[in-house]
Design goal:
Distance between the termini: 24 Å
Number of strands: 0
Radius of gyration: 21 Å
Order of helices and strands: HHHHHHHHHHHHHHHHHH
Largest sheet: none
Number of helices: 18
Structural class: mainly alpha
Helix content: over 70%
Strand content: under 5%
Shape: globular
Length: 424
């Protein structure tokens, strides 16, 4: 953590503000969202289908609007979109505190997602521009502050939710309100030349979609999001299968978060000394695929009957899952900073937020499709008596993505965009 703090303090004031901004955003978001489903199904007694619909609307409104949010950031400026997104999430969370009808819940959920679509591409574009040649380091620090928020938020939410869910909503809403005011006053405005252009938005989108290196890189990286999402899907299911307990699920998130917070800066510096960005991404993808080997080897040795909670046997059953979680965390630490910098490299400096927006949308679509594939593999592995099958599929996905990135690198498609040279 000390080296991460030293890294964060080495940046100029705007980057420091963006790091604190992301920490606060994640604390506010994760103090509320993990407990929303319980509030909807418990306190409000909504059927599971409606709970799924309301939560799905949030995800759809965010993933589907990332491109719009990125375009607005390029056209109107990153600071206005960051402020607008945080302000809109303030309204959404305060609305959740008083929502007592399906319509209000749907509106609040949609606003929560749209708010993320406004500020997420803007924050990343602002950070990339401010960091300049230090993009990789900046995104390494950014990931640490984001993960710290993911760890702190649920703990605060757990305490507040024990008193009242409305208190969680009010606290999170007030945090976003304070963040909105603070950024209005403290975050420097940075006018972008594209704000003065008269060219239509559709032409911008046509240019982005016609950027083959960017699209090919985006498609090659989709598998990495499918694999990393197994922390939320495959690994918890495996923990419950072999132990019948939720303790291992909690340990997965705690171990992953602490590893990122303590090791991201060192891992990034180590990788940057040895590899070019495409090489680091490729090797990270290989490790991400290999992360599932412990589960593939251990799955046939574990029966379907869960071991009662506690004891040495329980701990031993968790070791392959935790091993996979650790390797996934290290792989993500290697990939993420170089991945974010490479998007700017292949896209060019003039529509950074638009590129980030479309990249996030494609990743979201890929995760949705990948969840269907991984869910099918998990079901098939269980029904066919092939418990290693889903994990071998994950290994192949990682290796396939690594091969695709390596092919793009060898062909020169991941070199700096001809639009303008950008240091990474």
């Amino acid at each position: 953590m000390r080296s991460t703090l030293a890294l964060a303090l080495s940046f100029d004031r705007p980057v420091k503000l963006l790091l604190v901004n992301q920490l606060t955003i994640n604390v506010g978001f994760y103090m509320l969202m993990p407990y929303l489903a319980g509030h909807l199904s418990g306190t409000l007694a909504l059927p599971a289908a409606l709970v799924g619909l309301i939560l799905g609307i949030r995800n759809l409104s965010q993933q589907g609007m990332f491109l719009v949010g990125g375009t607005l950031a390029d056209r109107l400026g990153c600071k206005p979109m960051i402020i607008a997104g945080c302000g809109l999430r303030t309204v959404a969370f305060l609305l959740l505190a008083v929502a007592d009808s399906i319509l209000m819940l749907v509106v609040a959920s949609a606003l929560t997602g749209f708010a993320g679509a406004l500020f997420n591409p803007a924050v990343r574009a602002y950070l990339a521009r401010e960091a300049g040649a230090r993009k990789v380091e900046a995104f390494a620090a950014f990931n640490v502050f984001a993960q710290l928020g993911v760890l702190i938020g649920p703990l605060i939410g757990l305490v507040l939710n024990g008193m009242a869910f409305k208190l969680v909503c009010l606290t999170a809403g007030l945090m976003f309100a304070a963040l909105t005011i603070a950024q209005t006053r403290a975050l420097p405005s940075r006018e972008h030349p594209r704000a003065r252009e008269k060219r239509g938005v559709l032409l911008d989108w046509r240019e982005v979609i016609a950027n083959r290196p960017f699209l090919l890189f985006s498609l090659a990286m989709i598998g990495s999001y499918v694999l990393s999402f197994q922390v939320y899907l495959g690994l918890p299911l495996e923990v419950r299968r072999v132990t019948g307990s939720e303790l291992g699920v909690t340990l997965i998130f705690v171990v992953s978060g602490l590893l990122t917070i303590s090791g991201q800066a060192r891992v990034t510096a180590w990788a940057a000394r040895r590899w070019r960005p495409p090489e680091a991404i490729g090797r990270g993808l290989v490790l991400m695929g290999l992360a599932f080997v412990p589960l593939a080897l251990a799955a046939p040795l574990v029966g379907d009957a869960a071991v009662p909670a506690g004891g040495i046997a329980h701990a031993l059953l968790l070791l392959p899952v935790l091993g996979t979680a650790v390797l996934l965390s290290v792989a993500t630490m290697i990939i993420y900073p170089f991945e974010m910098a490479t998007i700017v490299t292949v896209g060019g400096p003039h529509m950074v937020a638009t590129y980030y927006g479309l990249y996030s949308t494609l990743a979201g679509i890929g995760v949705a499709a990948g969840n269907l594939l991984s869910g099918w593999a998990l079901d098939l592995g269980g029904s066919a008596g092939l418990p290693s099958l889903p994990w071998l599929v994950m290994v192949l996905i990682g290796m396939g993505c690594a091969a695709a990135v390596r092919a793009l690198d060898r062909s020169g498609r991941l070199a700096t965009s001809p639009e303008a040279p950008v240091a990474v």
